[in-house]
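tool_log.txt
---
The assistant was asked to compare two proteins side by side. It first ran the structure predictor on the initial sequence, then on the second. Raw inputs and outputs are pasted verbatim so the downstream comparison step can read them without reformatting.
(1)
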Amino acid sequence: MKKILQNSTLLAMLGLTIFLHSCKVEAPPMPNNAYATLKTYMLVNNLDLPALLTAWVVDPNGTSASGIVDDATSSIPGYTVYDLRSAADFAANHIKDAKNVILKDVITTTEALGLAKDAKILVVCLTGQTAGQAVMALRLLGWSKAQVLKWGMAGWNSTFQTPWVNNSGFVDPAKGDLAVGNANWVTTAAPANGSFAEPTLTSASADGAAILKERVQAVLTAGFSTADGATVLGAPATYSIVNYWSAADYTTFGHFARAFNIPVISLTNDLVKGFDPSKEMLIYCYTGQTSSVASFWMNVLGYKTKGIGFGANRMVYTSLKAASKAVYKGPKAWTVTQ
């Protein structure tokens, strides 16, 4: 009898144990903090934005002026040249020996070509702005000598100058001074920058290099677009805007009303925390070309940024030119091929 009671007690205890375990609430899995992994990887591997903005853009000067373009042939020896324009535009006219590449395919094309990480790659578009996206993608993944052709095809030959003519004061000062006399362009001191939480990224990988490649391709695939400067000028309070100039230039040349001033965008010292990852934020520079490379880098990290097309060349061209800042001054006269 005693033995039966002991067995019954053991069975009861076993049943209770099974019941308790079956009711136990498991802790939710920890989120994959891909942003932290990516941030660490980029800092360790010298992929912070200031480090990547070394010799990233090159003027279309001839070799006789210590440039990259062969004066006799209008070719660019020593470089692999990518032209990001449409297939139709490329077929009509392009730089000698250039390859027509779609923006989203710039990494896979480079891998397929087997280009060494120290290869010289020159990326060309129409205005120099789209090319910035491709160059930042290439630099982030190790092709450290990738460069933008400054001003794009609009700086190569007068056939292609129309976009810059229409969005700067090169021909018509009025087209480059939209902000002059506008109440929404001011010279006031900058508002205090915010300090926001970091973006949230998820990835199936816990490897920094793999996460970076995944993010670079995702941003390339998403495509490139810019905000229209005239529209932003009409109602700047409806946008979150970042001026990417020095503090001195911010007040000297003026800025969109309520724009923040972030002269250095960097992971170091958490300077990126001036950007709110929950909002689309617009970045502008002098030409739209620097903001292109910066916005790509920011978006790889999980931010939602966009450049303002043609930058301040469309807002205060005359003042910028007088101060010897970067402004479109017209094309060269290099030849093209079909």
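(2)
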Amino acid sequence: MQSELSKALLFAYFEGTTTPIQTQRIQRWRQKPENRERFFACLEEWENQRLQYEADPETAFHQFRERIQQLESTPETPVLPLPTPSVRRAWLVAASLALLTLLAVWQRDRWLYRTYSTQYGELKTVGLPDGSRVTLNAHSSLRLSRWTFGQTSREVWLTGEAEFSVRHLPTHQRFIVRTPDELEVVVLGTEFVVSSRRQGSRIVLNSGKVAFRSLQGSSPAPVVMKPGDVATVKPGGQVQMQSHQSVERYRVWKEHRFLFDRTPLSQVLATLEEHFGETVQLADSELVHRQITGTFRAETAPVLLDLLTTLTRTQVVETDSGNVMIPLSPLNP
């Protein structure tokens, strides 16, 4: 990290608009005795540029008196007759109906659907009305019908990533997961993980049996999965199936762990953005092809970034275009 901070970054800190990484960096910097004088000097300058309004009672009084004189010299305007009570009631009813219509449209989803969601870096486990359990990964959401789920259907809409433990019902009612890229996963009772991110969707079957199909394809025929199968669905509906996989590696996120196996650094940083909302660019083209292998536990973006910079011998610097990762020394071919 850079030892000197720009005035613009400090001003953003005073305004409360810095990212968690920037805030942590500034707090470490201001704790050093040699930086305190500059910190408070910038704070004073920032406050002086945003002075509070000071009232001028004398000027206000004169303006008020002039306004009174203008009103006294203005000829009276004829008063229009007020609407009759029946007309006023009609206007009130029309306005009330219009307001209720707007509120109904705005609140429609809240009335019809229940939504569970997580913030960046947050995990959450929820119980569904049918007894099934869902664990949401970071920056994910699950929506289901507030009134009919478990009654006439068991259908949910997932954005992000979640692990499902679906309860089998005596009625053999199907449990359906839908994603924004038109993926449909149908199960009776099983444990599986569904991920729907920018790069595409993925289904990991831990136990039981599921069938899925992509409605984007020309012939969306169902694909049946067995335990240990991993299905990847690319944008456009192309399906890639892998069998006899270790499904535990796809569940490590439940313990705030990240598993990389010869993963390009660019993809690792994409994972960082998905989970924590922090964007870091690569300044060196050679860094794009750097591969990361290992398991890392991190509950915040700064912790994961510190691990990555130590491993790759890089540093993250603040630029006008955002956070950029640069090498500490020339890379070996």
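---
observation on (2): The chain has eight helices and 18 strands. Residues 100 and 252 are 47 Å apart (CA to CA).
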